[in-house]
Amino acid sequence: MLFVLYFSYLYYNFLMKFHVRNSEKVRCVPASCLLKTFAFAFLFFCAVPFAQAEAVRVPRILRLGMVLEPPHLDPTIGVAGAVDEIVHANIFEGLTRLNPAGEVRASLARSWYISDDGLEYVFSLRRGVRFHDGSIFDAHDVKFSLDRARAGSSVNGQKDLFSDILSVDVIDALTVRVRLIRANADFLYNMAWGNAVIVNPKTASQNAFHPVGTGPFAFSRWVRGDHVTLVKSPSYQGPSIRLDRVDFRFIPDPAAAFSAMMAGDLDAFPRFPAPELLPRFTSDPRFSVIVGTTEGEVILSINNGRSPFRDIRVRRAIAHAIDRRAVIKGAVFGYGVPIGTHFAPHHPAYVDLTSLSSYDPVRSGFLLSKAGFSDGFETTLILPPPIYARRAGEVIAAQLRAVGIRARIINMEWAQWLERVFERKDFDLTVIAHTEAMDIGIYARPDYYFQYKNSEFQKLMKSLKEMTDPSRRRFILQQAQKKIAVDYVNAYLFQVSKIGVSNVKLRGLWRDSPLQLNDLTSVYWGD
């Protein structure tokens, strides 16, 4: 303030001297000049710093870390969760969506009608929606997308989501009717998956490398091995978006991820790969640590279609050879919940079946002997790139070795794992997290990669789809959990926790993950 007054005094003297030198032109300097000068100086020296502070206070760019780089960017042609982490809810939208609590909400469909018998869904679509290329979204795009996903030639990674669809009919530009073969109580939930997003017929073939959707962000650039950039879509008609640009940066190395966060090169890492380093963040006031739930069941997948794993005694021996607590500690430093079946512990229908496959190496050895492997046997353990899988695999290999099962570890990159394990089913054992919500139904698919073929389980899943009564659905789900547990289809390890680290000023990131995605529609920078 003293500086402002001094500046005003000097400027007023200047005006007075000017008046003296130019008296024939200026008769006088009004007394109000001093007040005007003071006001000018005050505004100049206060407004400029305020404007600069305002610009710094509200950044509009988000730099977000990911462990895995996706093989492509089309969520409708594969199973890689890294694809959904970038594009689902950001570039692409579905008829429905899930909120952070896992509840179904409207998306491209603003409302819907369900017939009394549950066989017909009529969706009313949002008006004024455009794809990022300027094309107008309408009912024909919905028909194209659903018919494409359920076609015989479809390469959709979750084709079973669409197996109950009988027909998709366009009523008018903003109304579409879906008829089902049988009632499916999960249909609206299924339409919220990334595999069910709506695509543009004109650009669908290019979505793998230049995705075009209707979401709040449009694809900008993909620098292979480094990052994908999305920018705010000017045509988006949904809730106000408070980010202008998002960079998804790929950092598979835990130490590098930690360094990037500490150096301020990243603003958030929603699925941080190094839980052992979390104490360094919790003690630093610059960061928030977010621990929530996921739908990710980490399992030791067993190839049920290959010897010696066709023998339930061998599969059971493997299950009893594994100390889940040691695996959880070694793989994710305690950030996991033991499971005894393929189901999320936070779900109301969950049954704790861990005692069926308790750690008992003596029983494991006995079962191997009964199966004709008193001296054990050799096998392979294929591990994909996620850190939890590599770390868990090392612990599991040591535990199996203790009972005579000599598992040779083979580390693979993601594309190799998908091609060899998931597609060709050429494996013995592998460690993977199944991150899709409520995906116990995969055990009803005899062609699924672990090749479990059981008609009784298939009947359970069929009755679940047709059942709408909550208590009956709960009972069926519990029976399904028990069935795959007593059949020892796989060795069930733990439900992985969602561990995220972010700048303390960042708001709106989801704590829990009802689906594997990074929904940025409500993310913004606060004070």
* Structure classification: alpha+beta
CATH class of the largest domain: Alpha Beta
- Low-confidence segments, given as residue ranges, are 1-57
The name CATH uses for the topology of the largest domain is Dipeptide-binding Protein, domain 3
CATH structural architecture of the largest domain: Roll
How many helix segments?
Answer: 14
Strand order of the largest sheet: 14-18-13-17-15-16
Number of distinct beta strands: 21
**Oligomerization status of the protein chains:** single chain
Largest sheet: 6 strands, mixed
List keywords for this structure.
four-stranded mixed β-sheet; single chain; 21% strand; Dipeptide-binding Protein, domain 1; D-Maltodextrin-Binding Protein, domain 2; 527 residues; disordered N terminus; 14 helices; 4 domains; six-stranded mixed β-sheet; 21 strands; alpha+beta
